[in-house]
């Protein structure tokens, strides 16, 4: 940790910098003001109730004392009290919250419920009660605020610790024989320190306000001592005659609060090794953002602006009878190229597979075709059209929604857990086709029965969590088919499913293709799956099409391209049992037909095995 | 069904791990569910048992019971003929270690690789300095550059993190290792690398391993014996090669026929109702 990296770290963290500057200035004031200004702040003079002027910037109070000087001198006492109260509640609260997790089950539950009810109780009221019981005074105000702040820290610590305690690394540490208290100190507390520091800073701000409130109502600091709350209390009787008196303590309170918050945010990002020092994480690759689109049909999504590069008529090298024509598709996120000059066509009734490892751009292509690219990702193509529907520019939303059906990878994330399936599955039909509700429901029951969903009537009244993943995936296929789309895009639709369920869902894709003649763009990382389902298969690597082959060739293993062969050889099912799998890294240095299968089996080759920068999915 | 498989290696007579009529219930009272129903199997020393099952079959529960997270409601787990001690600490660590499924959440993001591995070597103090050479050894054992030890987990790819997890699990020299779906989050090529690494380690260190997976094709590569779980019942147990060639239970046959690329796979069949 050289000094210049520290400097750079601070410079890249504006909230830390500004928070530190503000609180630093306040600290200087707290140190310097009492010895320098206590004269003008505490000496009674005859210049009572003066307005703002050159000699007294904010005027004087009823006893002729300088208002600004009093506010500055009060900084020390106010900050000390707030800091003491916050520190006490932080230490006690975190200790309680963390230790609760070492307690046996029944005690833990009891403590958590007690903490919950304590949090529900307004902290200022609690503080008022404690201060009233203890009697007015500075000490009792600190104790009252400290006690009132404990439940907040305890609950946050307990909640955060519970989520961290579920992580595999805590389980592993326990397996390794690390004692409970050590796990707490080594793994749990460091990993929850970010939110705790943010709470610490906001709690400091709250303590500041609460202590000032106590002093304001006369339960805190007593004459002749004074803090900002006390100053506000003294200013209250003359607030209309002399409004400038309340200004100084109020501004000081606000500035301190803002400073503490900024510092807390800054420190939180500083202590995290994932954010410190390194440049801000790059935008998620579209591959990772694929399943993030919430609706099960692209209808709700505003189509991303697709820009036609060059004249749209230049459809060189594309078959005129293709249903979907993609020519020269290039997708960029910032200065990174996710998809580089990809062209293919899908004829009516054809199933085209896109296969490749993560980061190869297969989902990005699908999302570009569906007009669902995430923000900040731009697509260019010389031609991108579905029949007569030009997908460049802004195609009519309704046609987009009815002519392209989409099935996503995660059947559980695709559905809104709060709504019944009937509402969600019939949405496209009702909204875009104007089908009456009852008719749409009947159609859906028939569609579900077609795709072998048991008890389709009852399913429509159920919520998504009541169905298995395979049932949900079949339901979302049925939903995507309601508009009888010309093209069905399926993005890793079977990846999240068990193997027997996967086989069944694949059969449904095949059946739909046979019965409705629906063309499909089928995306998968599983070369076995695309092999059995697809007519044509494009093999992608690093955003480029490196091989075009057929499902039959994949099944028979009669592929010629070195990368496709490497993928097949790495597939466990294809190799003989017991023998070593081929794990050749095919580096697409030149993505021409050059067989550059130099077996760089070494793992220093980070670029090949998913460079962490591109892993936006976790 | 509680058959005991004979080891492919007959000279290892006494099994290292014996699970006998193990039943596990999760939840309490009315919400209690019987997740494992009288499961029995042996793992001979130096061999690998693959446990296959789909989601909800109870395979992860079995792993977690073996490492002491869940308590069996009946049945016995014997290691070298002695009941598996649920005690933690160094003795427990040297008995069983687990390689977790998710390479992303299995490392504390705030600790360097060296710190994480030092903890495996010395759970109490976890000091890096005295064990640096041993950490370098562990890293090269899984084909990672020893220079990597001062980096943080997020600087590694998924496959590299899984190698780190393997290195950490082997650090206390456990008597047997549980690998819970360790390749399911990985790309094909990365998965192949990890499987080859495991095969290599099994040979070199004669590891005793319970390899859990939903993927039959993967299992075929790393196991001597295969066991199939269906809704908490062990429905199939036998030598890997023979089981793949001629499964005894119809469910195993269905599983095998569901793998795209397997000669038994048919897309145009009428769907098999389960």
From TrEMBL, chain A:
Residues 274-314, 588-618 are annotated as: Disordered. InterPro entries: AAA+_ATPase (IPR003593), ABC_Ni/Peptide_Import (IPR050388), ABC_transporter-like_ATP-bd (IPR003439), ABC_transporter-like_CS (IPR017871), MetI-like (IPR000515), MetI-like_sf (IPR035906), P-loop_NTPase (IPR027417). It is a multi-pass membrane protein; Peripheral membrane protein. Pfam families: ABC_tran, BPD_transp_1. Signal peptide: none annotated. GO terms for molecular function: ATP binding; ATP hydrolysis activity. GO terms for cellular component: plasma membrane. The keyword Nucleotide-binding applies. Residues 324-567 form the ABC transporter domain. PROSITE patterns: ABC_TM1 (PS50928), ABC_TRANSPORTER_1 (PS00211), ABC_TRANSPORTER_2 (PS50893). It comes from the Bacteria. Residues 75-264 form the ABC transmembrane type-1 domain. One of its GO terms (biological process) is transmembrane transport. Its main location: membrane. The chain crosses the membrane at residues 16-37, 77-102, 114-135. Residues 277-314 have a biased composition (Low complexity). It is found in: Cell membrane; Membrane. Keywords: ATP-binding, Cell inner membrane, Cell membrane, Membrane, Nucleotide-binding, Translocase, Transmembrane, Transmembrane helix, Transport. Belongs to the binding-protein-dependent transport system permease family. This is Dipeptide/oligopeptide/nickel ABC transporter ATP-binding protein. It comes from Streptomyces flaveus.
TrEMBL record, chain B:
SUPFAM superfamilies: P-loop containing nucleoside triphosphate hydrolases. GO terms for molecular function: ATP binding; ATP hydrolysis activity. GO terms for biological process: transmembrane transport. Keywords: ATP-binding, Nucleotide-binding, Transport. Residues 17-256 form the ABC transporter domain. InterPro entries: AAA+_ATPase (IPR003593), ABC_transp_ATP-bind (IPR050319), ABC_transporter-like_ATP-bd (IPR003439), ABC_transporter-like_CS (IPR017871), P-loop_NTPase (IPR027417). The keyword Transport applies. The keyword Transferase does not apply. Belongs to the ABC transporter superfamily. This is ABC transporter domain-containing protein. It comes from Streptomyces flaveus.
């Amino acid at each position: 940790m050289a000094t210049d990296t520290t400097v750079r770290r601070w410079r890249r963290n504006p909230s830390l910098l500004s928070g530190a500057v503000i609180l630093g200035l306040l600290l200087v004031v707290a140190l310097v003001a009492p010895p320098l200004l206590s004269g003008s702040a505490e000496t009674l003079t005859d210049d009572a109730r003066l307005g703002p002027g050159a000699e007294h910037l904010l005027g004087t109070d009823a006893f002729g004392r300088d208002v600004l000087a009093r506010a500055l001198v009060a900084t020390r006492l106010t900050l000390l009290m707030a800091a003491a109260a916050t520190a006490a509640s932080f230490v006690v609260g975190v200790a309680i919250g963390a230790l609760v997790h070492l307690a046996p089950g029944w005690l833990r539950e009891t403590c958590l419920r007690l903490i919950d009810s304590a949090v529900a109780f307004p902290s200022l009221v609690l503080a008022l009660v404690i201060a009233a019981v203890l009697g007015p005074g500075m000490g009792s105000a600190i104790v009252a605020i400290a006690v009132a702040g404990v439940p907040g820290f305890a609950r946050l610590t307990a909640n955060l610790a519970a989520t961290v305690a579920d992580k595999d690394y805590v389980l592993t540490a326990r397996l390794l024989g690390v004692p409970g208290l050590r796990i707490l100190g080594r793994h749990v507390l460091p990993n929850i320190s970010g939110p705790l520091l943010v709470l610490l800073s906001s709690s400091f701000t709250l303590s500041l306000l609460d202590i000032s409130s106590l002093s304001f109502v006369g339960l805190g600091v007593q004459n002749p001592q004074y803090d900002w709350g006390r100053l506000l209390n003294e200013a209250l009787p003359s607030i209309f005659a002399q409004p400038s008196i309340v200004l100084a303590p109020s501004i000081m309170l606000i500035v301190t609060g803002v400073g503490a918050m900024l510092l807390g945010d800054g420190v939180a990002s500083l202590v995290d090794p994932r954010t410190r020092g390194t440049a801000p994480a790059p935008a998620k690759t579209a591959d990772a953002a694929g399943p993030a689109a919430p609706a099960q049909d692209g209808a709700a999504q505003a189509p991303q602006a697709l820009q036609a590069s060059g004249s749209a008529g230049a459809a060189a090298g594309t078959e005129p009878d293709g249903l979907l024509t993609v020519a020269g598709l290039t997708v960029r996120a910032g200065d990174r190229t996710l998809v580089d000059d990809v062209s293919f066509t899908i004829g009516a009734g054809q199933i085209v597979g896109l296969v490749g490892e993560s980061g190869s751009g297969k989902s990005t292509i699908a999302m570009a075709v569906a007009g669902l690219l995430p923000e900040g990702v731009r697509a260019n193509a010389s031609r991108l059209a579905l029949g007569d529907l030009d997908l460049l520019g802004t195609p009519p939303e309704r046609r987009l929604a009815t002519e392209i059906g989409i099935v996503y990878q995660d059947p559980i994330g695709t559905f809104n857990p709060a709504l019944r399936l009937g509402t969600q599955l019939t949405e496209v039909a009702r909204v875009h086709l104007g089908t009456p509700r009852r008719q749409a429901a009947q159609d859906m029951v028939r569609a579900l029965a077609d795709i072998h969903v048991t008890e389709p009537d009852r399913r429509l009244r159920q919520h998504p969590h009541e169905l298995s993943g395979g049932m949900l995936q079949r339901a979302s296929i049925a939903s995507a088919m309601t508009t009888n789309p010309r093209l069905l895009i399926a993005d890793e639709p079977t990846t999240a499913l068990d193997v027997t369920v996967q086989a069944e869902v694949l059969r449904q894709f095949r059946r739909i293709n046979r019965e409705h003649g629906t063309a499909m763009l089928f995306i998968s990382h599983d070369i076995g799956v695309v092999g059995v389902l697809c007519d044509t298969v494009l093999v992608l690597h690093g955003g480029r099409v490196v091989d075009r082959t057929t499902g039959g060739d994949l099944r028979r293993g009669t592929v010629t391209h070195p990368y496709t062969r490497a993928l097949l050889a790495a597939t466990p099912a294809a190799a003989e049992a017991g023998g070593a799998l081929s794990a050749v890294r095919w580096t697409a240095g030149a993505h021409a037909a050059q067989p550059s299968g130099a077996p760089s089996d070494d793992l220093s080759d980070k670029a090949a095995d998913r460079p962490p920068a591109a892993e936006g999915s976790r | 069904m509680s058959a005991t498989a004979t080891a492919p290696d007959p000279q290892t007579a006494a099994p290292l791990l014996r699970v006998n009529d193990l039943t596990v219930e999760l939840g309490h009272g009315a919400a209690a569910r019987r997740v494992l129903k009288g499961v029995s199997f042996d793992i001979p020393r130096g061999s690998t048992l693959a446990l296959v099952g789909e989601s909800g079959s109870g395979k992860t529960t079995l792993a977690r019971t073996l490492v002491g997270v869940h308590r069996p409601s009946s049945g016995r787990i014997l290691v070298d003929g002695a009941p598996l001690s649920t005690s933690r600490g160094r003795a427990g660590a040297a008995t069983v270690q687990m390689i977790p499924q998710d390479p992303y959440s299995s490392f504390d993001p705030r600790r360097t690789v060296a710190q994480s591995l030092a903890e495996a070597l010395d759970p109490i103090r976890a000091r890096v300095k005295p064990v640096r050479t041993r950490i370098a050894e562990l890293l090269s054992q899984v084909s990672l550059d020893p220079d990597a030890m001062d980096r943080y987990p997020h600087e590694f790819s998924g496959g590299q993190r899984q190698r780190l997890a393997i290195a950490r699990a082997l650090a206390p020299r456990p008597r047997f290792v549980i690998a819970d779906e360790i390749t399911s989050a990985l790309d094909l090529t990365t998965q192949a690398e990890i499987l080859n690494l495991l095969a290599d380690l099994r040979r070199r260190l004669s590891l005793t391993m319970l390899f859990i997976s939903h993927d039959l094709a993967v299992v075929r590569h790393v196991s001597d014996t295969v066991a199939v779980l269906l809704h908490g019942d062990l429905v199939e147990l036998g030598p890997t090669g023979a089981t793949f060639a001629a499964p005894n239970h119809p469910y195993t046959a269905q599983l095998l026929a569901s793998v795209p690329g397997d000669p038994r796979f048919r897309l145009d069949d009428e769907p098999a109702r389960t």
